[in-house]
Each structure stands twice: as C-alpha cells, then as structure tokens.
Amino acid sequence: MKISTHRSTVYEGHSHYAMNIAFNPKDANTLASACLDRTVKMWSLGSPHLNFTMDAHDKGIDYVDFYPGPDRPYIVTTGDDKTIKVWDYLSESCVQTMEGHINNPSFAVFHPNLPIIISASEDGTVKFWNSNTYRLANTLSYALERAWCVTLRRDANEVAVGYDEGIVVIKLGRDEPTYSMDSSGKLIYARNQLALSGNIQSLSPDDPLPEGTRIPLSIKELGTTEIFGNALIRGPNGRFVTVVGDGQYIFYTALAWRNKCFGVGLSVAWGGDSNAYAVLENRVKLHVYKNFKERGGVGMKGCESWSIDAIFGGPVLGARGKGFVVFWDWETGEVVRRIDVEAKNIYWSGTGSFVVIASEDSFYVLRFNRDAYNAKVEQGVDITDEGVEEAFDIVAEIPDSVRTAKWVGDCFIYTTASNRINYFVGTESYTISPSDIPLYILGYVPAHNRVYLADKDMNIYAYSLSLSVVEYQTAVLRGDMDAAAEILPSIPKEQLNKVARFLEARDMKELALQISTDPDHRFDLALQLDDLDVATEITRCMPEAEAETKWKALGDRALAVWRFDLAKEAFDKAGDLSSLMLLSLAVGNRDGLRKVGDRAANNLAFATFFQCGLAREDKSCTGSGTVRTYLCTEVIIPTAHPWAC
To answer: What is the structure's pLDDT at 101?
Structure first.
C-alpha cells in the first residue's frame, strides 16, 4: 500500500487496503493509518519513513481516531474482530478493550467536547462509551441497516451517522456551559476537563458598551478536573468549588485548585454557611457533612422513601423528584415543607427570604417564613412528611420558562427559553432585553450596573440594569413611597424613562409624568391625565414637523373636555380645517367659518361657504352636486355638468 501527499511523498509499509487515516490534533505533523493488515502505523509529514507499527487487532482494522485533549496520548481503533480498543501510542500499549457490537464496528471516535467515545457497527447500532471509565453508557438503534460513517458538529454537540438506508443526526449533552461566578465577579468555568478563570471586576464600568456587546475577558488556566463536570458549585464563602459529573464529585480550593476531597454522588448542595453540605449518593441515599466529616445521628426524614433526582442548597436543604419538591431543616432533618409540583430547578435568594421553583413552562415565587416553622416546632406539633404548610407563602406564578437565573437581593434575574433577559420584582416580571442567541446568566455586578451573561462558548455579554431602579420598583410595589422618594435621586438619568413606564403600568401616571424625560411619553401621560396645559407646553417645544400630530390629538382632547379656545388653537396649528369648520359651526363662529373657507379648497371650501350662505359661483361642480342631491330644480347653473340634470 502506498500513500501519496500533494508533495509527492510516498508512504509505504501496509500490506493490505488502508481503510482510514487520522491526523494528530496535538501534532499536525503526525498521522496514523488503519489497515486491513491488522496494523496501525504512525507517520510524520515530510518523511517517508515509518515511525512505528502497532499490531492492534486479530483481524483487519477499519478506523483510527486520536484523542483530542492534551492530557492523554491515546488513539481508538475498530477491528473486524468486533472489538474497539484504546491505545497509548507513546508506550504502544492497549489501555482498554470494549466489546458489545455483534458485527464489525465501522468506526469509533472521541467526541471533542464530551467524555464519550461514539462507535457504530454493521449490526445497525450506535454505542456511546464513557471515555474515562470505558463503560457502555447507551445504545441506539434506528433500524436503518448497517452504519458506515460519522461526522461531528463541534460547536453544537451534534453527531450525524450514515446508514445503508439513511442518515440520523443525534443531539448530545447540553449547550449550557459549566460555570460559577460569585458576587464579586470571580468566574470559574470548565472547558472539557480544563478549569479556567477570569474576573468580571477587571472590566471597566465606564466603558460605553452598547447593550448585548461581546466583551473580551482575560482568562487564565487554573488546572484540570479529574472528572468531566456537568456542574460547578461554589461554596458560600467562595473558598471551595465543587465539580460534579460522571456520578462523582470533587472539592477543589478556588485559588490554588487543589483537590480537597472527593466521593461518589449525583448532586451536591451547600448549606447556608460553608461548613455544611449534602451529597446525594444515589436516588434514595443522602449524606450530610459538617466540616468535611459526615454528620452522625438522624438523617433527612423520609429521604429513603422518595426517589430524588437532585438537591439544592439554601437556608433549608431542597430536593426535587418526580412530581414533588421537599425542603428539610439542615440541623434536625425534619421536613419543613413538601410541595407537589413538577420542578426542574430551585433558586434561593441571597437573603433566604424567597425561593423560586421553576417548572418546564412557568415558575413560582414563594416567601419562606422561618418563624412560622419554628413556632410549630416549639408548640410540639407533630411534623408529618408534608411538613408545615405555613412555612411557605406563594407570592406569584409567572408563565415563563426559566433557562438560567440569579437572585440580586429580592430581584430575580433570569433568561427564558425564548431568548429574553427578564427580571422579577415584587409580583411582576419585566424585560431587560431580548437576545439573538441563547445566553446564560453569570451574575450581576452592582458597581457596573450590569448583568453579565455568557453563550455556550463562554463568550461574555453585558446588559444594563440599575440596582437603584430595582430598589425603587420594590419600594413602590411594597407601597413604601417615602423610601421610593429617597431612592429616586440615585437613579441614573438614562433610566428615568424606564421608571416612568413602570409607574404608568402601576396606574401612577401623575408620578410618571413628573419623572419621565421623554417628550412623547410625557405628552401621552398629560393627555391621559387631562393636563392639557402641560401637553400644550410640550407640543410648543417640538419641531413643527413632529408637532402636527400632537396638535391634532391635543385638539381632539381639548374638544372632549370643552376647552374650545385650546381646541381652536390646536386644530389651527395642526392644519385640521375639517375639525376647525365643525368647531366654528358648533359655536356659531361665522368669522371662523369664513377664514376656514378662505384656506380650504374644493368640497371643504364649498361646504364652509354653504354653511355661511356664501357659496361661490366658481364652485360649479360642487354646486351641481348639491342641486342634484337636494333636487333644487329651480336653481339654474349655466355651467352645470350633464350628469347634474
């Protein structure tokens, strides 16, 4: 067998058909070839000499692929002996043999982003193997006969597999990146098994950034994670970061990225302080730790009788399962409250006063009443598996699907499935901005008055949200207008119109009129309040081209409230001669009618003079129409058209 490049270099050495060639992503000058002669050979570009040969399978080899990460010198091969093998090409040793296909595997590839190996076979199945443990994770069959080829879409975690009778595109994993950002703006995220960090605080708050602008952020490497994480959970004091994935968890120190402890677990949740945390080992086994030592005594009441999917940290320990959410007291293990709801996530506010339970197409905002729960406990009331009903009060139900979210004080900021960035305060939800692509909330930096978000590739974006605006809205919704008045001077001028529209929606139009700086909005408010003097003042200050429609609207409103002088002025400046004619006719203003007639033309001029009894002879066509309409047969107009007779 010979392999030729465009430089006419010939590579010789195989004794049968070469079935596949792959370049090493870590060294673009190295390539491997798989052959039916049962060998894999390594070559270097520019040199016709063979580097080395590996006798990889008992029968012919159909495919070879390199591991894409920097930490393992591995290749994966498939053979007609129905096996898949992972090799260390530096030591030329077999790392693992995977069996499961009942016919020849056509290919096996490392996924570039996920810790899986994808293989497909002439048996018609596609198999997914964990590239860390080499265990079979899943098998798919689409009844399309033999599978032959594969291609990967690296930016969307999609895999296309070609069969005898068609093509199947498979969506893998999730697009949401794995990250954590604390309140000070320190960001940690994972890319494959590489841990990276950046500091949002290093961005200048004075940079005039347009909404939704992509922001360059300096990134540094922290280290690597021994597992492929699907969640990063930062402790309350920021000292530790927990990586959860592959049914395991590892605690790292946030600064030096040193392994603190590890174990088996599906989910991890921190308590209100950094000394307590819980680990969900499996769906019916939950452990609570204090200072990294498992706490003895009674566990969480009822946890072994419920199948739990995930746990959530906060002032009480939360968990969700099929059709329910349950909250336990960290210290006693008693059930605080069990709620029947199909939830996908739980978000606690930083104050511990509010919690959001997010379902597939809506979310519920609840107020946590710790005192009500403690009162029942002190009274010696028997706490059942349903807990204490008074412990939670529902505040609002919002028909929005929450993708990601963060609490900022008592303000709940979230992104939706329809690519909108919203926030909830009081009892209502408001939109910050729509976005063109799915974005995921990193957090809010008060010093910048910005919400920071990331896309699936961890590109950073920023949107403005003034915390003083949120505080003002919260005070208004509480009915504390004195507090709102104190906050108002601190609101940036560019946010005043937003506040004014919020007040208008709350039917506080007088206050909105005082605050708004938008002339159009102030004019509309003034009309709604019948404050026509303010509306007139606003209109007089506008350019003539923009003022015409305002004068017309002002005239109509003035007429409705019997301010005829203002209506006359407004209609006059708007050039609305029809309205001027009707107004003059209604008030018996003969001189006004004559003036309208002098300015008007054709039908309107005739109608105006007709009302004055001064129809002009040169309006013969209109006059003929009048004769015909009213059957005035004795009126003779010499120039009348034939149709008027």
So the answer is: 95
CA–CA gap between residue 385 and residue 277 (Å, rounded): 22
Q: In the prediction, which pLDDT does 598 show?
A: 61
At 564 the pLDDT is 77
* Residue the block writes with tokens 């010696």: 380
Which among 608, 619, 549, 546 is positioned nearest to 577, based on CA atoms?
608
Give the Å distances, CA to CA, from 262 to 234, 238, 244, 251, 270. Answer: 15, 18, 10, 6, 15
Contact between 110 and 131 under an 8 Å Cβ cutoff? The reply is yes
* Residue 92 burial class via C-beta count within 10 angstroms: exposed 0-12, middle 13-18, buried 19 and up: middle
- Listing from the earlier edge strand, what are the strands of the sheet with 450-454? 213-215, 460-464, 450-454, 440-445
What is the DSSP track for 26-56?
TEEEEEEEEETTSEEEEEETTEEEEEEEEE-
- Give the C-alpha separation, 550 to 534, whole Å: 12
CA distance 393 to 355: 10
The residues near 200 (Cβ < 8 Å, ≥ 6 apart) are 181, 185, 186, 187, 217, 442, 443, 445, 448, 452, 460
Q: Are residues 181 and 187 in contact, defined by beta-carbon separation less than 8 angstroms? A: yes
pLDDT of residue 638: 47
Distance of CA 538 to the CA centre of its chain: 40
Cβ neighbour number for residue 155 with a 10 Å cutoff: 11
- 489, with CB counted inside 10 A (0-12, 13-18, 19+), is exposed
Q: Which residues pair with 149 in a beta bridge?
A: 162
d(CA 490, CA 122): 69
Cα 556 to Cα 579: distance, rounded to the nearest angstrom: 9
Q: How many residues does the chain have?
A: 645
Q: What is the pLDDT of residue 641?
A: 38
Q: What is the pLDDT of residues 194-247, one digit of tens each?
A: 899 999 988 877 777 778 888 889 999 999 888 888 899 998 888 899 999 888
Give the global pTM.
0.74
Res 1: pLDDT: 53
Largest CA distance in the chain: 120
Q: Are strands 147-153 and 136-141 parallel, antiparallel or unpaired?
A: unpaired
Which phi and psi angles does 338 have, rounded to 5°? -115, 130
Q: Does residue 136 contact residue 129 with C-beta atoms inside 8 Å?
A: yes
Burial (CB < 10 A; 0-12, 13-18, 19+), residue 378, is exposed
Q: Could you tell me the two tokens for 175?
A: 């697009």
**Runs of H (alpha helix) within 360-495:** 370-378, 467-478, 481-487
In angstroms, the Cα distances linking 608 to 300, 326, 587, 589, 640 are 88, 78, 14, 12, 20
Per-position DSSP letters for 224-289, written without gaps between them: E-SS--SEEEE-TTSSEEEEEETTEEEEEETTT--EEEEEE-SEEEE-SSSSEEEEEEETTEEEEE
The pair of three-digit structure tokens given for residue 324, joined into one six-digit string: 């329910």
DSSP state of 101: -
Backbone angles phi, psi at 60, to 5 degrees: -55, 150
Low-confidence ranges of the chain (pLDDT < 50): 615-619, 621, 633, 635-645
Here the contacts of 236-243 (C-beta below 8 Å, separation 24 or greater) are 236/270, 236/271, 236/272, 236/273, 236/274, 237/273, 237/274, 238/182, 238/184, 238/186, 239/274, 240/274, 241/180, 241/188, 242/268, 242/270, 242/277, 243/190, 243/195
